[in-house]
Amino acid sequence: MMKGTSDSSKSVLLLNPPGRKMYLRDNYSSPESKASYYWQPIDLLVQSGFLKNDFNVEVLDAIVEKKTNNDVLQLLAAKPYYSVLSLTGSASWPEDFELFEQIKQQHPQIILALTGNLPLFRYNEIFATHSFLDVVLLDYTTNDYQNYLLGKTELLQKIVYRTPDNKITVVDKKLPREFSFSVPQHKKFNHRLYRLPFAVRQPATVAIGSAGCPHKCDFCVASEINYRFRNTDNLIEELKAITAMGFKEVGFTEFMFEVNRHRALEICNRIIAEKIDITWSCNCRVDTLDEELLTRMKQAGCHTIQFGIESGDQAVLDMHSKRYKVTTARETIALCNKVGIRTFGNFILGLPGDTENNMRNVGKYARSLGCTNAVFSTLVPDFGTSLRDKVVQEGKMEDKLTTFSSTDKVFEKPLNGVTPDKLLAIRRKVMIDFYLHPKFIYDNFIKVKSFYELKAKVAFGLKMLTRI
Ligand code: SF4
Description:
Helix content is 37%, strand content 17%. By secondary structure, the chain is α/β, with parallel strands linked by helices. The strands form three sheets. The chain has a seven-stranded mixed beta sheet, with helices on both faces. α7 links the parallel β12 and β13. It starts with 10 loop residues before the first strand and ends with a helix. Bound molecules: iron/sulfur cluster (SF4). The site of iron/sulfur cluster (SF4) has 10 residues, from loops.
């Protein structure tokens, strides 16, 4: 580590490593992109803001730029990088770790830092077994990486690092509820290569207004990350900056946009009052929205909301601490349709407690709610979740480091009595029920808002057809 001073002649590489598939590794999730969608990795974007005044920041998103491990190694050989901050995740870690081993063998002086779901929840095992690892960020919304690189260890808050005498130091302090960061270097991410799932305009980028989630759904990684919110002035400053850079659309990729109603209204009111020309999408719960807030969101540019609906069975929702009433989902989707905001429902097949009959009808249920679009994932007890602890204790799965996409894996031992083959057959039926219905085609291909959106929808539709 340097001691105490900034040095913009030192280069830091923010890396999304190459992959055999289109892994999405940001925000502590690790799915594969199923419909050719891909967005700027938010962890790296946020860190580009923290680092910009002290270091020369370079970005390589090897997934969208279609680069190989050799390309990464050649780049690192071309000049002396001080540090590499890389994403990794449960879907891709064996491939990623191969590259990290090579980086450390060829460039032992480079400080190698990781962010992602796997290092967050399993850093002990990784530090113990992989000498390439120097640093793990336990929260990408802090400036710990910057402070670590500057040698300001007294300021560290949530980070794990290896000391020169090979000891592992864990700093895990309680963070303030509010956070801010300098405007990220959006232009260093080649926006032409990204395609946000819901964008209606281009160019598009991503942003966050909060971190973690205060709710305790047992299958969800967000429930294990303390909810914190971003200073509103700081968020508005970034929205103004990105529109000044030419962006027309932003995807808020935080887990939950509207935890605090007052704050959500304030953000919308500021976007409207300060005439920020931006269209956007976000994630919300079905039980925290009302017509006034939805109307303000729509006026502020929101066109699509993604909801975690998960199941249509109250007992299943209750069993997994989802804590909303099934009737509320129907009412809120209806309100969104009334206000003119499109809805994207997330459903999980295979939750313990769910029955075969319930699952078979999820596609029809999603349609009956009036969802514009939906995705049907098979359950994954992700690293760090309380559901994973439970099924491990019950002997239904081993708690070892395996690879899995965080939205798409069928475990050998069924978690709710439905065999893997049957679960996949059920999902196929559910997808046919939803995607091949005239309502889906009308909502998604006739009612589009732009040519860009039509192209994206056609690509989505073709990809979905290949998966059925
Ligand atoms: S499923 Fe949604 S509400 Fe529940 S913990 Fe995750 S982000 Fe929060």
